[in-house]
Amino acid sequence: MFQKLNQETVTYKDFGFIASSPYYYTNNKQRDEIKDAVENSQSQHIGVIGSKVVVDNLKVLRSNYSKNFPGYVVQGIADGNLFLFFSSYDLADIKPFDIISITGRVRDHILEKEKYPMTKLNYVSIRKGDQTYEKRLDVRTDSLSALF
């Protein structure tokens, strides 16, 4: 990439590399920031399994639509502690580094990358500013299961 950018002349074959460079730069920078946040956290497991947890300043590290179930997987950090939860709410507008508030139950205490303590939550309610997420994703298929 740097070789292409430092050439005196650019051919039409190089446009693809040059046009995609901002996209790759942004993604790599974001990935590095997330990696640093996880590695530099002094994370501990929060709460007792089954207890209620309220987190008012969760910084979202990842919010991805899952390939394995209909919903989102959200990973975040608050006060140096890592949290993970799955949600069937429509969280398409929650992006990395957004600040959200959550309330949920501790489902499990796990290790991220076999090294960093992370608290896994379920029954999570989500707020971002004044917005409360209540709309669930439409998970119905075209099968006849809707008849029963």
Describe this structure in words.
This protein starts with a helix and ends in a 16-residue tail after the last strand. It has a five-stranded mixed beta barrel. It folds into two domains: 2-39; 52-132, OB fold (Dihydrolipoamide Acetyltransferase, E2P) (Beta Barrel). It has 148 residues and is of the alpha+beta class. The protein contains two helices and six strands.
Break the fold down into its secondary structure elements and pairings:
Blueprint: H1 2-5, H2 15-39, E1 52-65, E2 72-78, E3 81-87, E4 99-112, E5 116-128, E6 131-132
Parallel strand pairs: 3-5
Antiparallel strand pairs: 1-2, 1-4, 2-3, 4-5, 5-6
* Structural class determined from secondary elements: alpha+beta
Range of helix content: 10-25%
Largest sheet: 5 strands, mixed, barrel
Number of domains: 2
* Count of strand segments: 6
Computed Rg: 20 Å
Shape: elongated
| CATH domain class name of the largest domain | Mainly Beta
- Count of runs of 4 or more consecutive helical residues: 2
What fraction strand?
Answer: 35-45%
What is the second-level CATH architecture of the largest domain?
Beta Barrel
Helix and strand succession?
HHEEEEEE
- CATH fold group of the largest domain: OB fold (Dihydrolipoamide Acetyltransferase, E2P)
**What's the mean pLDDT score?**
87
List unreliable stretches of 5+ residues. Answer: none
What is the terminal separation in angstroms? 56 Å
Provide the spatial order of strands within the biggest beta sheet: 1-2-3-5-4
